Amino acid sequence: MHDYRSMVELLKEIQALEFGVYELALFLDTHPGDRRALEDHNRLVSRLNQLRKAFEDRYGPLRLDSESPYPYRYINDPWPWEIQY
Amino acid sequence: MWFYEKKLQYPANVRRCDLAMAKFLFAQYGGPDSELSAAVRYLTQRYTMPIPQAKALLTDIGTEEMAHWEIIGTLIYKLTEDATPEQLREAGLGDHFAQHDKALYPHDAAGVPWTAAYIQATGDPITDLHENLAAEQKARTTYEHLISLTDDDGVIATLSFLREREVVHFQRFGEALMQVQEHYQHKHIFC
């Protein structure tokens, strides 16, 4: 149970960072020449990649092109609609 | 192509089983101004956009709409998870249960199945972007109606996030529309 809460907390951090990345990406779609937005985007992406790696090492793949230990761990519950956030 | 990421874009919690609210939420799951309509609309229109900014924006907003569709599906799933057939019947979801049990079939709040007639793709980028501006406003309004129909703070938090995304998408579509209009003005002058 303790580990479940830690998993959810890390997931929420990833959600927050990924939200920042997505928001900046939409902005950059219509403002590709905005250097500051691009720097913010790249900085958040770098942090997001670190967190995603930390999550996947501990709780299993978030994507099917992530490496998995044996047996294939991507399929494991909980799926996103089953999680108590 | 797409890769699935095994996470929601935003947390979705519900405090209790609320079948009436689940029924209302089908508006945004399979209704005219639903997240499903938005995703299919933008991902269909993007092929005939004339400038890179608009191709990118329709691809990325269309993809985000699929993530929102998943969030609405999650709310309905959680709100109905513990319901009995009798409770579903009392809440007006007896018709749904008869045909779909608790499956997340895409229909609107009144049970009308989703149809591609809810969306348009005219091949005219200026027309299509105007449709999208209207679509974002209609979805924002629907979220405001939905928020006023519940007192569940978990549901309200998630619906508020989705409402805010409609506002941001409206802003970005407005920028893309101006850029497409500029693109055509220059084209007419120099060609």
UniProtKB/TrEMBL annotation, chain A:
Domain named Protein CotJB: residues: 9-82
Origin species, per record, is Fervidicola ferrireducens
- Put simply, this protein is called Protein CotJB domain-containing protein
Domain of life from the UniProt record: Bacteria
> Which Pfam families does UniProt cross-reference here?
CotJB (PF12652)
UniProtKB/TrEMBL annotation, chain B:
Q: Where does Ca(2+) bind?
A: D60
| Binding-site positions, Mn(2+) | E35, E65, H68, E136, H169
**Highest taxon in the source lineage:** Bacteria
* Enzyme Commission identifier(s): 1.11.1.6
Q: Which UniProt keywords apply?
A: Calcium, Manganese, Metal-binding, Oxidoreductase, Peroxidase
**Which Pfam families does the record cross-reference, listed alphabetically?**
Mn_catalase (PF05067)
Q: Does the keyword Oxidoreductase apply?
A: yes
* Family per similarity comment: Belongs to the manganese catalase family.
Recorded protein name is: Putative manganese catalase
Q: Which organism is it from?
A: Fervidicola ferrireducens
